[in-house]
Design goal:
Low-confidence stretches: 6-12
Number of strands: 8
Largest sheet: 2 strands, antiparallel
Shape: globular
Distance between the termini: 111 Å
Number of helices: 22
Order of helices and strands: HHHHEEHHHHHHHHHHEEHEEHHHEEHHHH
Mean pLDDT: 92
Length: 474
């Protein structure tokens, strides 16, 4: 049956001259359809462009080879990475690390207008620990890679003592200068520069750490170029039964993402009159094993001005401490946290703005840890707060032992009787310094850091007891 027509509606439309209500929305529908079509087309074009970008992660603007150490030249092919590298000039402080931009009046001897704050002014106990050593003259908070060369050139430690060219190993881009100095032989050039006075060696380098120090110019693969690490990691592997280890052919890619950092962020010493740089890993990489190595070869950095003990200065053993922590055991590399991956368009790169993960929690931490930023930051700062408290107790113990030895010495106690307390100072001071100089404030390996500080406190106590009853500390 045919339904009756709505004659009233049709007649009304005829009288008013307007289309039925259902027709009025046709233009709007057409506009919406056109907009949706345009949006889909734009999305498809964007996807296509990103796929094309992903096929070409960089453009070969210049030819790179093993003689180019200027990062600006590399930056022509890799502008995104170079932009991050240049931003390491910034100075941002976290609660327990980083540095503040402290203004200073430039002088002819030191043209810097900005420096980091002095750790010696922040904690005067360090002057007591390092009495008689150059670090008691000048020691400042760490700054970014962009400052690594100039801060070494203009530190007052250069005035306090004549530093060797060995220091250049970790404060400049050295791969090309070593090769030139060694007539194409990297190791020979390194050995030659070690023996130079620092001012002479400084003339041979131009840049702080550069692209060529970590990347092969042909393949862009990561590589280790620092001879100190090449020898050190070989010695470490040999201690575990793996002989003739070649880091550049035997390490995995993920291992290399930590090894390129471990080239410099390590404990080391200068061996003999030739000032050969040595990473003391022949017995292992833990603080006890490193200390045993020093005990065996009899090395000391200086004689303490107050106690007369032959003592050691730990440097910056981030690599050693990281190796004892949960991140290393879980296969997390240094670069995963300090140079996390980022997306720029369709391109995925490592962020070359090397900095504290606490300044980049989203990409550095939340990739693995699915908790709010504030909670993650609080967890880290809780670990660091507890470490800082233990560190303070340990430093008080070292300073107290030094004071007791000094008073006993002034009172006429014989060197034979002071040998035990001085040995205790040598060990506990090195352990405290190992945990203090490691720049994560305990975070890289919280339990190991606490063990080290507890051992140091106990050793100091035993040293003080031996002063009282003349028995050697165990």
């Amino acid at each position: 049956m045919t339904e009756p027509k709505d004659e009233g509606s049709t007649q009304k439309s005829a009288r008013t001259g307007k289309p039925p209500a259902r027709w009025r929305y046709l233009p709007l529908a057409a506009v919406a359809a056109a907009a949706a079509t345009a949006g889909i087309a734009a999305l498809l074009v964007n996807i296509f462009e990103h796929k094309q970008e992903a096929k070409s992660p960089f453009y070969r603007v210049v030819e790179l080879d093993d003689t180019i150490d200027d990062p600006a030249v590399w930056g022509k092919n890799f502008p995104l990475q170079y932009d991050g590298y240049r931003r390491t000039v910034d100075q941002k402080r976290t609660r327990f690390g980083g540095s503040e931009a402290v203004p200073r009046t430039p002088t002819e001897a030191d043209p810097r207008s900005v420096v980091a704050q002095s750790k010696l002014e922040e904690d005067g106990r360090l002057k007591t620990m390092w009495a008689g050593y150059a670090f008691a003259r000048d020691f400042r908070e760490e700054r970014g890679h962009a400052h690594m060369l100039e801060d070494q050139v203009y530190t007052e430690r250069q005035i306090a003592t004549k530093q060797p060219g060995t220091c250049i190993h970790c404060h400049a881009s050295v791969y090309v200068p070593y090769k030139k100095l060694g007539g194409g032989d990297l190791m020979r050039g390194w050995e030659a520069m070690n023996q130079m006075p620092f001012p002479e060696a400084r003339k041979l380098v131009t840049h702080p750490v550069s692209c060529i120090d970590c990347h092969d110019p042909e393949s862009m693969q990561l590589r280790v170029t620092r001879p100190g690490f090449i020898e050190g990691i070989r010695a470490l592997k040999a201690s575990t039964g793996e002989a003739d280890y070649d880091v550049n052919t035997m390490a995995t890619r993920q291992e290399m993402r930590s090894y390129v950092c471990g080239q410099c962020h390590v404990e080391y010493y200068f061996k003999g009159p030739e000032k050969r740089l040595v990473y003391p890993w022949a017995k292992g990489i833990k603080v006890d094993e490193i200390y045993a190595y020093y005990e065996e070869n009899g090395h000391s950095d200086w004689t303490h001005a107050e106690s007369g003990a032959k003592v050691l200065k730990a440097q910056h053993p981030e690599f050693e401490m990281w190796n004892q922590g949960i991140h290393a055991r879980s296969g997390v590399a240094c670069a995963d946290c300090h140079m996390p991956y980022q997306r720029v368009g369709a391109t995925k790169i490592s962020d070359h703005h090397v900095q504290s993960p606490l300044l980049n929690v989203n990409r550095a931490c939340q990739t693995c840890h699915k908790w709010p930023e504030d909670e993650l930051r609080q967890r880290v700062e809780t670990i660091q707060s507890r470490h800082f408290e233990a560190r303070n107790r340990a430093m008080d113990a070292v300073v107290a032992l030094i004071s007791d030895i000094r008073r006993a010495k002034e009172a006429g106690m014989a060197d034979e009787a002071l040998a035990g307390p001085r040995a205790a100072q040598r060990k506990c001071q090195f352990f405290v310094d190992f945990a203090e100089a490691e720049n994560s404030s305990g975070f890289h390996a919280p339990q190991e850091a606490m063990r080290i500080l507890a051992s140091a406190i106990d050793t100091c106590r035993r040293g003080q007891l031996s002063l009282r009853d003349g028995s050697p500390p165990e």
